[in-house]
Amino acid sequence: KTAISIKDLHVSYYGNEALNGVSLSVQPGNVVGIIGPNGAGKSTLIKALLNLIPKDKGDIKVLGKAVKEVRKKIAYVPQRNDIDWDFPITVLDAVLLGTYPNLPIFRRPKKKEKEWALECLQRVGMEEFKKRQIGELSGGQQQRVFLARALAQKAELFFLDEPFVGVDVSSEEMIVKVLKDLCCQGKTVIVVHHDLSKANDYFNQLILLNKELISFGEVNEVIQSEI
Ligand code: ADP
Ligand code: ADP
């Protein structure tokens, strides 16, 4: 089943077009990078896919359905700077929040829920930090916790906005590995990124975007077409 299908998507803000007729479809089992300059509409595309902003025109199907019907199957990791932890929260609680994103967190987790959250933390190599406050962690460690939180959600689709910014090399390697594992399990991973330099290490498909779709396909093909 097609993971994402976008037909002639137009989105504008106050009359200014941010996306101008984007069409593409992504099959499951891919890690897809969305690359383009500042203001290219990368975040807008992700927000449209999450149904967070209205579209002027076009059709979006996720897992064959309208986005609002499958929202719970989509995990979203916003840019780290967009996440405002203005209350103290431990690493484990932050991940538990991913287990039931639509429920209040101030309930005692069941043993099974806690075990699942710990397993997700283990997958990103952050289990030993479970009692630490998120705010105390380095950028790379925070990003790994947010990834664990997304894993806890048991999603089919993962959207990550600039997950490699301000991240140390070992965290970067860990994130790449986890994304590849997801892709091997038949999940779909969409990652906003700002340049092509490491595209080959991070992704197997690329979407080059600049208001309109410049190019879409396997990483090597897309890079060849740009040179
Ligand atoms: P990117 O993520 O590629 O940097 P964005 O999707 O954030 O691009 O933005 C695309 C265009 O839409 C930019 O020109 C930006 O200024 C504009 N834009 C984005 N969000 C808003 C908003 N909330 N209100 C008005 N304009 C916006
Ligand atoms: P901004 O408009 O400030 O750039 P974003 O669009 O990046 O903010 O994110 C809006 C908020 O919606 C985020 O805090 C994010 O946690 C939340 N959100 C939206 N969709 C999901 C989802 N499927 N799973 C978890 N959180 C989500």
Automatic annotation (TrEMBL):
Pfam families (UniProt xref): ABC_tran
Natural source organism: Thalassobacillus cyri
UniProt similarity note: Belongs to the ABC transporter superfamily.
Limits of the ABC transporter domain: 4-227
Cross-referenced Gene3D superfamilies: P-loop containing nucleotide triphosphate hydrolases
Tree of life domain: Bacteria
MF (Gene Ontology): ATP binding; ATP hydrolysis activity
Record keywords, A-Z: ATP-binding, Nucleotide-binding, Transport
Protein name: Iron/zinc/copper transport system ATP-binding protein
